Task: inverse folding
């Protein structure tokens, strides 16, 4: 089994994402979860399977990926290199400048879970 080490940088990014998502009107009852893997650090809501951002900090160039369409991600990430769904960043602090993208990804993940939650309740 690989040795997975969660870095201070990943935890700092998690706190930035949590603070951004807390401003969403949809944040009530939608906790921010995380899981570290060898290839990426996943940030999700409701369930660990409902990820909305992945941090790729173990690569040569740091990047994040979301489930937002690449075209929309590019339009919400002015000044950033966006390629094949990856938004390249220089530092963790750049996440503050990606606030609109992160909020949209979070809110889309919550909306995605709503029908499933209703079906399970019925």
Result:
């Amino acid at each position: 089994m690989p040795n997975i080490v969660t870095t201070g940088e990943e935890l700092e990014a998690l706190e930035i994402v949590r603070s951004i998502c807390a401003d969403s009107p949809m944040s009530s009852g939608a906790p921010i979860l995380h899981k570290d893997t060898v290839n990426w650090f996943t940030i999700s809501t409701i369930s660990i399977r409902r990820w909305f951002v992945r941090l790729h900090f173990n690569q040569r160039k740091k990047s994040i990926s979301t489930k937002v369409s690449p075209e929309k991600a590019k339009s919400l990430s002015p000044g950033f290199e966006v390629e094949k769904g990856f938004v390249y960043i220089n530092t963790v602090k750049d996440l503050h400048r990606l606030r609109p993208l992160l909020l949209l990804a979070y809110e889309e993940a919550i909306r995605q879970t709503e029908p499933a939650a209703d079906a399970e309740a019925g």
Remarks:
- The domain at 8-113 is CATH 3.90.1150 (Aspartate Aminotransferase, domain 1).
- Residues 116-122 have pLDDT under 50 and may be disordered.
- The chain has one domain: 8-113.
- DSSP finds three helices and six strands in the chain.
